[in-house]
Amino acid sequence: MKKMLLIEDDGLSVNVMRRIFRDDFEMFVCDSAEEFYEKYRNNNFDIIIIDISLKGSKNGLELIKEIKEDTSYNGAPILCLTAHAQTKMRLTALESGSDLFMTKPVNNKILKEAVEFLLKSKQSGIKMKI
Amino acid sequence: MCKKMGTVKINRKIKQASRGTALLLKVWIRNRFILPFLVLLTSLVISYINWNVANRNAENELRSYFEYRARDVYNRIEQRIISYEQILRGACGFFNASDNVNRSEFRSFFNTLNLDKSYPGIQGVGFSLIVSPEQMKKHISNIRAEGFPEYKIRPEGVREIYTSIIYLEPFRDRNLRAFGYDMFSEPVRRKAMETARDSNETVISGKVNLVQETEKEVQAGFLIYLPVYKNGTQYTTVSERRSNIIGWVYSPFRMNDFMDGLFGERAADLDVKIYDGKNISNETKLYDSKTETTRSGQPLTIKKEVDFNNHLWTVIVKSTPELETRIGFNTATIILIVGLSISLLLTIITWLLENKRRQTIITNKERKLAENSLKKLQEEQQILLDHIPAWVFYKDTENRFIHVNKTFADAMGMSIEQLDGKSLFDIFPNEQAEAFWKDDKEVITSGKPKVNIIESMESLKGTRWVQTDKIPYRDIKGKIVGLIGFAIDITERKLAENSLRESYQIIEGIINTIPVRVFWKDKNLVYLGCNKLFALDAGFTDPKEIIGKDDFQMGWHNQAVLYREDDRMVMKSGNPKLLIEESQTTPMGNNITLLTSKIPLLNPAEEIIGVLGTYIDISERKHVEDKLKKSHEQLIKLNAEKDKFFSIIAHDLKSPFNGFLGLTELMADRTENFTLDEVTEQSKSLNKAAKNLYKLLENLLEWAQVQNGSINFTPQNSDLSKMVSQSIDTISQRALLKGITIVNEAGNSQKVYADEKMIGTVLRNLLSNAVKFTRKDGKVIVSSNRLENGTIEVSVTDNGVGIPEKDLKRLFRVEEKVSTKGTDGELSTGLGLLLCKEFVEMHRGKIWAESNENTGSTFYFTLPLK
Fold it and tell me: Are B666 and A20 a contacting pair at CB < 8 A?
């Protein structure tokens, strides 16, 4: 079973995503950067979903940057989620190295498809940016 | 025929002569030197003739005088010789009377003669005795016996016959030398002695040297002899005389002594020379008066031979200048001098008379000429007067016109004659005439001209402006007899001036009215002028005050150097400098901002002669601009802050919906997939999120109300402690859950002046935060403190997690909305503190926080007491 790392501080959203992906992924959830480091190091994830606004000292974008620069990064696709809707934020998110950027609220079905798409394109080696 | 021709010739001569005379006359008339010259010439000629005659008379007179004097000389010589002859004859008679005359007899005889006084010049009277050789011995012994032991006859020697001077009186001095001298032994004497013996006459010898002469002052001498015969008888034949002679009485003479006695004092003015015989030479010279002098001209001379019994003396008498001056010539000189003087005097008198006469002639001529030219001048003047386009009038002191020119008469609508004698009051209206007459009187009384009187008057052509000069009119003696007026119609000029002045006034008005400062300076940057506003700026009231000053004398002297640099640049380059923004210090010392433009000031020849500047005071505008700029910046900042804030709010509002939508969708789609427990759990989650969202909305709305000012601020005297307890009550349940104690240490019944609703919110927010960030069993204390400035400081202290340093600063900043979950994961809106800040600030209070990580935080805010 594939492993998914979800970094999200909104409890309801975590509940929703757990429910959506519980059949396909082994879910790892954290709501702060501190928790993230612990989980990220000990597991090999297939996909990472990060919300930009986090409680604690660092935000999601900073974490994405750190992952990308980490030597042990396995190339798992990173999906960036945020309630910020500005284009500027989108560009910043992509620049930081995420593979896909989606704005909250996101439709359950679309989110699922996006995750599937990311995994497939990872397999086929297609690198695309939206 | 011949006679006739002669007549013709004479006639021609006369004609020529008359023609000559006419010519002379003409010359005379023409030349004023002629008459005086003729007078001089004539008088000189007369003087000369007179002088000449006088001279000749003088000469004649001199000659006669000289002849008389010369004759006198001869006479005196002759008379003297005759006198001596008489003495000798007396002596001879004495001898004749007594046969034997002895020495003492002879002496007494001589003494009776008193020769010294009566006959000066005579050396003496003596007797020479003939001694034959045979008698020689006896004779010598006889004489020696008389008391002369040395006696002998000299010179010695053997001669045929001897003579010896046995008596010679006065027997002394020189005469002693002659004693015993044989005169017969010497040829000259002998000759005279023989002649005397033979002729029985007194005979004068030739020139001899007397034996009496010593070495000194040797004079020529002569002797006179008279024979003495035996028995005193007069013998008639020569032989008888020769045989009967016994001796001679004689007198020796020294020639100079002889002559000296002859003349009185006058002798000096004649030159007398006497020669022995006819022969004239130094050898024969007996006497020289030595009065001959070197002289000009020939002296008068008379040469005469004087015969003394056939012995001749040549006597030459010459005149000396001394003599000549005695006579006659002085008169001639006086005549000459007087003549010359008279000539000169006459000439001068004639010259003066002639001049006077001629002057009279010339004056007459000139007067006539002058009269003519005066007449002409008057005519010309009249023409001139009548044609110059000015009014000319002469007036007497009684305000009557004496004479006017045509221009004036025409302007008055009268003829020149009509105006004669009229007064101003006859011509002009009273008031006008009075004004003119006032000036006239002033000129007449003061004697000073009054010029450039500009006045208006009514004439046939309507109102005219005239410019008048009035000058006192004086007679020859300088007395003021009226005035001369000279007036020009300057109406046209006046009108032009007026319109010029009007347009100038308009321009001046414009310059002074426009809300722009205008100034202009010369090349040396000295002010030539400015408008009123400029003058006021510079600290003056009148633009005229500024003329001649420079920028260093203005209120803005501090900026003068800067301004002048600009001025120079404009003048140098010829290019304007437009819209320069610069500052200026006003006379009051304020700094204002100007917008200045400067352009070169050009003269009509387009040469730069200075600089013209304008400026406007843009201080107000500048001030507004600055303010605007500041508020604009503020606004931008605020906007940015709000943008940020809203993006955060948007996120916080949207974010929960992700969960709502996702979960509700899941629950709606797959309700069967949810167990009952799950539904309960999810519903609780949804409720919690909804509550938080609601709270966020509530805070947001409240904040928005504060922002747009629609919230009511109603402060009142409130009990702080009471407000704190009420707030604690609302929180106590949550605190209780976490086991946190809240202590109210706010002063009992501490009053504050506050909006209770707002301060309640503030207290609740702070207490809620304190509980949120404090771990289980923690403690929260609310206290109050009265500050020195009369405000109440309220503090909420916890011993919780604290706030990191970097967040501490961001707490109250809208663009930095921070929301942190509590120690038990309590949610927060992040708007709470912002609201607190707004509310506290509405009470004119301050809010801040102090914190140490892990030991807790304290939030403070201040409230007014009243």
Answer: yes
Topology at the third CATH level for domain B514-617: Beta-Lactamase (3.30.450)
Residue B851 burial by Cβ neighbours in a 10 Å radius (0-12, 13-18, 19+): buried
Report residues of chain B scoring pLDDT below 70.
1-18, 20, 24-30, 99, 116, 118, 120, 261, 263-268, 291-292, 326-330, 460, 815-819, 825, 827
Instruction: Give the type of residue at A9.
Output: D
Kindly state the DSSP code that residue B181 receives in the 8-state scheme.
B
Q: How far B660 CA sits from the closest chain A CA (Å)? A: 7
Q: Is the Cβ of B244 closer than 8 Å to some Cβ of chain A?
A: no
Q: Write out the CATH class of domain B388-496.
A: alpha beta
Pick from A13, A20, A55: which is nearest to B659 by CB? A13
Spell out the domains of chain A, with CATH numbers in brackets.
2-124 (3.40.50.2300)
Segment B380-424, tens digit of pLDDT: 888 888 888 888 888 988 889 988 888 888 888 888 888 888 888
Alpha carbons A128 and A119: distance in angstroms, whole number: 12
| CB contacts, 8 Å: B662 with chain A | 12-13, 16-17, 20, 105-106, 108
Tell me which CATH code domain B101-260 carries. 3.30.450.350
Residue of A nearest to B650 (CA): A84
Sort B37 into a burial class: Cβ within 10 Å, 0-12 / 13-18 / 19+.
middle
E-strand spans in B399-538?
401-404, 450-459, 462-474, 480-489, 517-522, 527-530
DSSP state, residue B298: P
d(CA B732, CA B166): 217
CA B365 to chain CA centroid, Å, is 48
In this complex, the residue of B658, B682, B686 whose CB is nearest that of residue A83 is B658
Sign of CA dihedral B702, B704, B707, B709: negative
Cβ-defined contact of A105 to B654 (cutoff 8 Å):
yes
Q: Do B651 and A84 touch (CB under 8 A)?
A: yes
Would you say B188 and B206 are in contact if contact means Cβ atoms under 8 Å apart? yes
CA-nearest of B738, B742, B740, B746 to B729 is B742
For B158, list phi and psi in degrees, rounded to 5: -95, 120
Which of A9, A12, A106 is facing B660, going by the closest CB pair? A12
Q: Which fold has domain B712-864?
A: Heat Shock Protein 90 (3.30.565)
**Which sequence spans correspond to the domains of chain B?**
1-30, 101-260, 388-496, 514-617, 712-864
Beta strands in B151-220 (DSSP E): 162-169, 203-204
More confident residue, B24 or A37: A37
Residue A124 pLDDT greater than 80, yes or no: no
Chain B residues lying within 8 Å of A22, measured CB to CB: none
Interchain contact, A106 vs B659, CB within 8 Å: no
pLDDT in the model for residue A29: 92
Q: Please tell me the predicted confidence (pLDDT) of residue B5.
A: 52
Shortest Cα distance, chain A CAs vs residue B685, angstroms: 7
SS3 string of B235-281?
Answer: CCCHHHHHHHEEEEEEEEEEHHHHHHCCCCHHHHHEEEEEEEECCCC
Residue A112 C-alpha, separation from nearest chain B C-alpha, in angstroms: 12
H helices within B519-603, ranges in order?
532-538, 560-573
